[in-house]
C-alpha cells in the first residue's frame, strides 16, 4: 500500500482527505502534547549534555596538553640554557687555563724586566766625577800678576796654567763621558718598561674577558633559575623563541631542499649510465631513485658528522661515545663524504659529456642533419662549475643538520601549541552545538504548539470563561515551567 | 612516536606494498614500441624523404628501453625480411645514442637504394608489426603507416583477417590524395573509414596525421 493510498481517506478528494488528516493529527497532537513536550525537551537536554560532556573532555585533554607543552618547553629551555652555560664555563676554563699556564712565564718575564730596570737604574745613579778641587788653585795662579822683568816666573806660571787647563779639560771630558753613559743606561730601560706595560695590558685584557663572561653567565643563570621555577616570563620567552626558531629553521631547510634539488639534477642523468635509464621502481626511474638515495646518504653522513663533532645532539648514542671513538667516527664520516663528493664531481662531468653526446645526436637527427655545431670555447667554465657544485654541495648539505635539529625541537612546541588551539576551537564548537541543541528543543516545543494552536485557543477560551480573569493558563504555565 | 605505533605504521606500509603487488591488474612496462610501415609502391616512393624526417623525429623522442622498427610495405609485407631496421635501445643513454646514429645510417642507405614495389600489402605489414611489438614486450605500442592507404594485393594473397590490435595505437601518416580521390573525394573518405573501422574493431585506436608539423602527437608521452 502506497503512502498516497493511506493519505486518500476520501477517494478523489485530496482536499477533504487533507482536512480530515489535519483534524485527526491536531487532536492526536493535542492529546499527546505534554508527553511530546517532555520528550522533545528530554531529547534536547540529552544532546546538550552529550555535547557538554564532550566539550569537558576536550577541555581536560587541552589542559593535559597545556601542561605537557609547558613541561616540554621548560625542559627544552633548561637543556638549551644548560648547554649555553656549560659552553660559557668551558670558555672561561679555556681562558683561565691558557692564562694560568702562561702565568709563571709572565711572572718570570716581569721579574727579569724589573731586575733589568733595577740594575740599569742602579748603574745610572753612580756619582759622576766631581770637577777637581784645585780648579780654584788654577784660577788663583792664573790671577797672579807676572813679575816684572822676571820671565822665568812667568814661564813657570804659564806652564802650571797650561798643565792645569789640560787636567781640567780631561776631567771635564771624563765627566761628560760618565753622564753620557748614564743617559744611555736610562735609555736602555725604555724597552723594559714597554715590555712590562705590554704584559700588564695582556693581563688586563684577560681579566676583562673573564669579567664580561661572568656577566653573561650571571644573566644566563638568572634565566636558568626562572626556567627551573617555571615562571610565566620564562615560559613566554621560551615559547616566543621556539616559534622564531621554527620559522627560521623551516626557511633554512627550504633553502637546503633547493640545494638538494640542484644536486639531484646534477647526478640523476649520469646515474642512468650506471644503473640504466629504463628500469622503473614504484613508478619512478631507478636512476632517479639512485640519485636521490645518494643525496639522502650524503645528508645522513652530514648528520653523523655534525653529531660526532658535537655540534648537534640528535643521536644520544653518538654523543655518549668516548672521545677516541668519536674522533674516529668524525674521520670515517668525513672520508665517506669526501668520496661521495668526488663521485658527484665525476658524475657532474659525465653529465656534461652525455649532454654533448645527446645534443650531437639530436643535431644529426634534426632537419639540419649532419651539420656540426661549432663548439663553444667557454664550455669548460660550465663543466668546471658543474663539477665544483657536485663536489661542494654534499659538504654544504652537511650543515642541514643544524637547522634540522632546531626544526625538530621547535616543532614539538609548535605542534603542541597548534593542537591546543585546535582543541580550544573544538571545545568552543561543542559548547555552541550543545547550547544550540538546547535552544532547538525550546523552538520545537513552540513549533509543536503552533501546529495545534486551534485546540489550544479553544482550551484557553473555555478556561477563561470558567475561571474568569483570575484564571491562569495552566498549559502555558506548564510550557513556561518546562522551558 | 611510541615503538608500538611505529611498528603499526611499518606493518601498514608493508601491507600496502603487498596488496599493490597482488593486484589483478597487470603491470604495464613504461616502455614504448614503434613499428613504422613505409609504403614503397610506385608513386609513393618519392614521399620517402618525408618518411625519413618522421623516422628521425621518432628516434629523437625514443629513450632507453624503447623499441623501434621500420619496415617496407611491398607485395607481401607479412615477413621479417621486410624489416629494414630494428632496434631496442640499450639501458645506457650513451649506447642508445650510438644505436640511434646507426639506425639513421641504415635508413639513409635504404632510402637511397629503394626500388618501388608493384603491390601494397598494408594488412600484412600491420600483422607483422603486431607480432614484432608483442615480442618486444613494450608497454605502449604504436604502429605508424606512412602510406596513401590504398591496399593493392597480388592475386592469391589473403588479407581479410581481423586485426588483433588491442591497446595498440595505429596512426596513418601523410595519407596523400590520389588523382582519383580528387575526382571523387568519397573514395578517399571511404578508404580512411575502412581502415578506421578495421583498426577499431580490432580493439585499437585509430588516428590520422597529415600535417608533418604536428609529429609530437604521434607517440605516447612517458
Please name the defining characteristics of this protein.
A: 483 residues; mainly alpha; two-stranded antiparallel ribbon; 13 helices; elongated; disordered C terminus; B: 222 residues; alpha/beta; Rossmann fold; 6 strands; 18% strand; globular
Strands, helices and their partners?
The complex is a heterodimer of chains A (483) and B (222).
Chain A: H1 3-7, H2 14-31, H3 33-124, H4 135-143, H5 151-229, H6 232-275, E1 280-281, E2 284-285, H7 286-308, H8 316-319, H9 323-365, H10 379-398, H11 401-451, H12 453-467, H13 474-482
Antiparallel strand pairs in A: 1-2
Helix pairs in contact in A: 3-5, 3-6, 3-11, 4-5, 6-7, 6-9, 6-10, 6-11, 7-9, 7-10, 9-10
Chain B: H1 3-21, E1 32-39, H2 48-61, E2 67-73, E3 83-88, H3 93-113, H4 122-136, E4 140-146, E5 168-173, H5 179-183, H6 185-201, E6 205-209
Parallel strand pairs in B: 1-2, 1-4, 4-5, 5-6
Antiparallel strand pairs in B: 2-3
Description:
The complex is a heterodimer of chains A (483) and B (222). With 483 residues, chain A is an all-alpha fold. Chain A is built from 13 helices and two strands, in the order H-H-H-H-H-H-E-E-H-H-H-H-H-H-H. The longest helix of chain A has 92 residues, at 33-124. The two termini of chain A are 41 Å apart. The model of chain A is unreliable at 471-483 (pLDDT under 50). With 222 residues, chain B is of the alpha/beta class. Chain B has a single domain (32-217), classed as von Willebrand factor, type A domain (Rossmann fold, 3-Layer(aba) Sandwich), CATH 3.40.50.410. Chain B contains six helices and six strands; from the N terminus they run H-E-H-E-E-H-H-E-E-H-H-E. The interface between A and B is medium-sized, with 20 and 22 residues.
